[in-house]
């Protein structure tokens, strides 16, 4: 593949990652409006909690995941722009962002709370891992492309 084609493919993977980040940020809200898997997960871990306390915990998770989603969106957009501009530093920065984002997603999937169960239900945890899959593809394509020659 040519440099331009690899970069365009990387940008496509990044756009998919951006879309998956939006999905991951929206899922907790859709869940609350429909099946409330998160609320039921918390209720099963803390049966003595009042409904008000469960609702508060769900809200806390929603805010936390929304903030992560917002940060993810910013990172995707800035990285896409850097690739389009041919910045030399984009490989290292994109790899670092990927490592951080994937680590946080993995933490969210696996973290145990005081009940001994995972903090998030598996459905929401795995949805949060989806942007990392696009990140793996994007990083691989960026590293396969010849190094950019434009200034930092």
| Overall pLDDT score | 93
Number-wise, the strands total 0
The computed structural class is mainly alpha
Beta-strand share of residues:
under 5%
Distance between the termini: 24 Å
Integer-rounded radius of gyration: 18 Å
Unreliable spans: none
What is the helix content? over 70%
The best one-word shape is elongated
Described by strand count, sense and barrel closure, the largest sheet is:
none
Instruction: Report the total helices.
Output: 5
Order of H and E elements: HHHHH
Structure description:
This protein is mainly α and 152 residues long. The chain contains 5 helices and no strands. α1 (3-33) runs antiparallel to α3 (51-85) and α3 (51-85) packs antiparallel against α4. The longest helix is centred in the middle third of the chain and has 35 residues, at 51-85. The mean pLDDT is 93.
Task: For this entry, give a set of tags.
single chain, elongated, mainly alpha, 78% helix, 5 helices, 152 residues
Short description, anyone?
By secondary structure, this protein is mostly helical. 78% of the residues lie in helices and 0% in strands.
Describe the SSE topology:
Elements: H1 3-33, H2 37-45, H3 51-85, H4 90-110, H5 122-144
């Amino acid at each position: 593949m040519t440099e331009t084609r690899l970069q365009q493919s990387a940008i496509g993977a990044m756009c998919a990652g951006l879309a998956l980040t939006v999905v991951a940020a929206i899922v907790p809200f859709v869940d609350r409006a429909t099946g409330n898997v998160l609320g039921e997960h918390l209720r099963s871990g803390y049966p003595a909690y009042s409904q008000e306390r469960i609702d508060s915990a769900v809200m806390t998770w929603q805010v936390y995941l929304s903030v992560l989603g917002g940060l993810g969106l910013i990172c995707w957009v800035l990285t896409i722009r850097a690739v389009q501009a041919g910045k030399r530093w984009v490989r290292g920065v994109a790899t670092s962002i990927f490592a951080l984002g994937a680590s946080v997603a993995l933490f969210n999937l696996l973290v145990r709370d005081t009940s001994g169960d995972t903090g998030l239900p598996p459905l929401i945890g795995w949805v949060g891992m989806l942007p990392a899959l696009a990140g793996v593809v994007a990083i691989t394509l960026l590293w396969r492309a010849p190094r950019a020659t434009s200034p930092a």
